[in-house]
Structure formats: C-alpha cells, structure tokens
Amino acid sequence: MITKILKPTTYALNKAANLINDGELVAFATETVYGLSADATNDDAVKKIYVAKGRPGNNPLIVHLANKKDIKKYVKSINMLERKIIKDFMPGPISLVLKKNSLVSQIVSAGGDTIAVRIPQNKVARSFIRRTHKPICAPSANTSKRPSPTTAKHVFDDMNGKISLIIDGGQTDVGIESTVVKVENNEVYILRPGKINEEMLSSSLHCLVHENVKVGSKIESPGTKYTHYKPKCDMILVKNNIVENIKKITKMSQIRVKKL
User: Fold this and answer.
1) For residue 56, what are the contacts with CB-CB under 8 A and spacing of at least 6?
2) How far apart are CA 36 and CA 128, in angstroms?
3) 1, 109, 238, 258: which sits with the fewest CB atoms below 10 Å from its CB?
4) Top-level CATH class of 4-230?
5) Where is pLDDT greater, at 137 or 245?
6) Is 196 within 8 Å of 36 (Cβ atoms)?
C-alpha cells in the first residue's frame, strides 16, 4: 500500500470520505493530535485500526462526530449534566462516555456498552467527518505505546504503507489527546486527563469533579490501562529545581559524550 499525503482541499476531503465509506483508514488532524479514522459502524474497518496500530483489542476507541445533534443518533440517552458538558465544551478537546446503541460496532467499545464521543474543534476535521455521513472512530495515528503524532510527517514516518491517506492539517494545537469524562450520580469523573481540567469543568458545571480516577477491570476510556507516550530513547524526569538540575544533566551528558 502506498500512503499518500494531501493538503485539505475539497478534492482531498472528498477522497478521504470515499475511502472511509469503502472501509479504509485515513489519518487526519484534530486540535489535539492526528487521528487514525475508520467507519465506526463497520466491523472490518474498525479491525484495521487495531491491526495498523498493533493495539490491544480490549482498548476502546473514541467516536468522532461533526455536530452536537449527531450524538443522540448513536447513544441511548443523555442526561442534563451530560447535555451541559456537550453545550459548554463541544466542539473541543473533550470526550464524553455515554451508553452506546446498536449502530456503533461492538469492536469500537471493546465489547462494552459505552462509547466516548467527541466533536473536534478543528474545522477541517469536522468537514471531513461531515462528508462521510458516518460516525468516525479515531485513536491517535501512531503505533500503540508510542508518542502521539502532531504533524502529518510524524504519521507518515510511523504508518507509511499501513494506511491509505493522510490529510495534512499542519501542526496540531494541543499536542495531547482529549480529556475523557464520565457522569455518574450527578458527579463528573475524569477518566483520562487532557487540556480540559478539573478546574475548568467544576467552574462551568458547578458540580463535584473527581480527578485521578483509578481504572478497574472495565476499561471505559483509552489511554488508561496500557503504556502510553513511550519514546524510543531514554528519558529523565526533572521534578524540582528544574533549571539547576537541567544544567547538571547537560554537563553530565557532555562529559559522557567526550569520553565516548
């Protein structure tokens, strides 16, 4: 397979939508990271995402939609607090866990009864999704466990030959995946942290918001069970006295290089 990179012209977006409807995979930019998309109603297409990424089958996918009104087509119900989250934070870098209906593939939800739904803030992303006339499942467009891509080149270097097309939307704005939240007993639980944080949610929703939620055997959000953002090189985490410690680390590295 030859992976093509195209700028987001009308021709490219129409081609991307046609590929999705033919059961193929397309990478596209959102405001968070690049996503690897497939038709969320097509079992065979969804399976291709897991194969291309080397993703464990029990790790669910997020469903991307173009408009708020589309959410009710694919879920069983939406309560008042969930509607408030949709109204205040969508489109945006947030995904909301809701009870799915039978239209969405069980593979998307890893066999569970919920899906996380999201409406990207990126206008090109929404235009692409709108042209497919389908719900689009889209994890980050990278090999599982590796850092998520923020440019089309990142995607190409990792996924070349595995997918049909990359829509080059430039550098993404946020750089990390969306915040994933769930409503339970009129309280909000952050299942995966992201740009939308506890302070922003509690200030807008005027309810109790729980952070650092421990995930049990039931996985309702991607990115909470398996190793994530794992680079191919050694990393050093600096917590305190950042400037001074970085100077020491830099000096030690220079000495090591000279010895080599």
Assistant:
1) 50, 144, 226
2) 13
3) 258
4) alpha beta
5) 137
6) no
- The answer to whether the CB of 37 falls within 8 A of the CB of 179 is no
Query: Cis omega before residue 91 (within 30°)?
Result: yes
pLDDT bin (cut points 50, 70, 90) of residue 145 is confident
